[in-house]
Amino acid sequence: MTEAALRLAGAAKTYPTGTVALAPVNFEVGRGSFVSLVGPSGCGKSTLLRLMAGLLAPSHGTVSRGDDISETSFVFQDATLMPWADVRTNVALPLTLKGKSAETVPETLKRVGLERFAQSYPRELSGGMQMRASIARAIVTSPQLLLMDEPFAALDEFTRFRLNDDLLALWQQNHWTIVFVTHSIREAVFLSQRVIVMSPRPGRVVADLAIDLPDRRDEALRGSHAFADQCAKISELLRDVTTEHAA
Q1: Which of helix, strand or coil describes residue 164?
Q2: Above 70 in pLDDT, residue 34?
Q3: 3, 7, 130, 156: which is deepest, by most CB within 10 A?
Q4: Domain range spanning residue 182?
């Protein structure tokens, strides 16, 4: 594995209510890699992502970052744009909060295909375009680590596939470290170098699979036997661990 951007050592989370959301978890995320987390609803995927972001503190264990991971961005399932502000202002928000110049905003909008919509308001955008704006806001600070919590879950399949393609291209161009939570096995396999499979709550890692597919990911790959085989392997793992937990 390449040098780690993230290290989780016995990281666990129990909420004040007594709910054990996450059993001790141990794994590393290599710098510049794309890793997806999949598992049943309520298994602690989002909790784990929030521990990585520093939005939650682990009850036990540690979550640490590589020495040069100075900027982390988080993309939520909802675009969470300010409805009273145009796209340009929404995207500039992280810079504004840090007291920095917004000079990188136009180039960032261009990278996500929204350069013609800088003065549009969220209500004037489609769901896919709103999510592009949310991604632009996340990357405008040039983060080394990008954490994404089911960002495309609410979108139709066509828009989701298109944004998958765009995200993959951005990752390949910019060499970010991305950790991506999704319920879609097909999405996880298409995007990722590794897929981490989690058990029902309390969440624990039951498999950490390298995705053995070509670097070039396109529509033809989605229809290939190799892609189907990778998806079937993860589906079987999830079915087995869910059945075992219910027994």
Answers
A1: helix
A2: yes
A3: 130
A4: 4-70+144-246
Domain CATH number, residue 176:
3.40.50.300
Q: Is residue 11 part of a domain?
A: yes
Cα distance between residue 16 and residue 76, in whole Å: 23
Given CA atoms 47, 54, 129, 83 in this order, what sign does their dihedral have?
positive
> Does some domain include residue 121?
no
Laid out side by side, the sheet with 34-38 consists of: 72-75, 145-149, 177-181, 34-38, 194-198, 205-210
Q: Is residue 110 part of a domain?
A: no
Pairing of strands 60-65, 72-75: unpaired
Q: Which helix (H) or strand (E) holds 137?
A: helix 127-139
User: Position of tokens 């016995």?
Assistant: 10
Tally of domains in the chain: 1
pLDDT, average across residues 34-38: 97
The reply to whether 37 falls in a domain is: yes
* Residue 218, CA distances (Å) to 26, 201, 224 in order: 32, 34, 10
